[in-house]
Design a protein that fits this description.
Layout (H helix, E strand, L loop, with lengths): L1 E5 L1 E2 L2 E2 L9 E5 L6 E3 L5 H4 L5 E3 L10 E3 L20 H26 L15 H32 L7 H29 L20
Antiparallel strand pairs: 1-4, 2-3, 4-7, 5-6
Helix pairs in contact: 2-3, 2-4, 3-4
Length: 215
């Protein structure tokens, strides 16, 4: 796991060439830290995250990197991928959300072929209103996916010329990321509403859709 840390000179943070504190990213082994199960609110627990604690731990230099602008990147960091910068972080979040949404749709389609709501004589899959809502949810996921992939494709073509993505060129990826997440959330909300209380059961795949799904 990666953690950010201040570099200290005695009791004070070390100062960089521009007067800012020097920070490093350190990659730690899971066995070297204590996991604190203290993310107790519903939304936070859904991320599978926790705080960690490490004391008197030695981290070799090969597993550290200084947080600093890439003014003079080394040879290993001059490729097109690195010229896209942190704009890819939003893309990563959007792709994860869209993958979750698509997996939720797949889980619901499976459920709809077997579940007959109370008071009705047919399964969910045979109800026109359900078919309409699921079609709309699928369209949302596909629209979000197209927006995200198209923005990345345009950015990838841009960095082939040696330029680095800046705010002017990266805004499309930022907008596509937000759009993709918004549509993914709407699609999952639609699925959960149609599935009813079954969606809350731990045995139901739609209630525990993995973030490893891909769009």
């Amino acid at each position: 796991m990666g953690v950010g840390a201040l570099v200290m000179d005695g009791e004070a943070p070390r100062q960089g060439p521009h007067g800012d504190p020097v920070m490093v990213l350190a990659v730690l082994k899971a066995d070297d830290v204590e996991i604190l199960d203290n993310w107790n609110t519903l939304g936070m627990r859904g991320t599978g995250s926790n705080d960690v604690r490490a004391s008197d731990l030695f981290v070799p230099e090969r597993r550290t990197a200084i947080f600093a602008p890439f003014d003079h990147p080394g040879a290993a960091y001059r490729g097109p991928l690195y010229r896209m910068g942190f704009w890819l972080d939003g893309i990563r979040i959007a792709i994860t959300a869209l993958g979750i949404a698509r997996a939720a749709l797949e889980a619901f389609v499976e459920l709809a072929q077997a579940k007959t709501p109370n008071g009705l004589q047919s399964v969910l899959a045979d109800r026109p209103v359900v078919q309409d809502q699921i079609a709309r949810a699928r369209a949302m996921v596909e629209a979000g996916r197209v927006a995200v992939y198209q923005s990345v494709e345009e950015a990838w073509r841009y960095v082939q010329g040696g330029q680095r993505i800046t705010a002017n060129e990266g805004v499309s990826m930022g907008l596509a990321s937000s759009f993709g997440v918004e549509l993914a959330v709407k699609a999952v909300d639609t699925v959960q509403g149609l599935a009813g209380t079954t969606a809350f059961a731990r045995s139901t795949r739609s209630s525990s859709t993995s973030a490893t799904s891909t769009p």
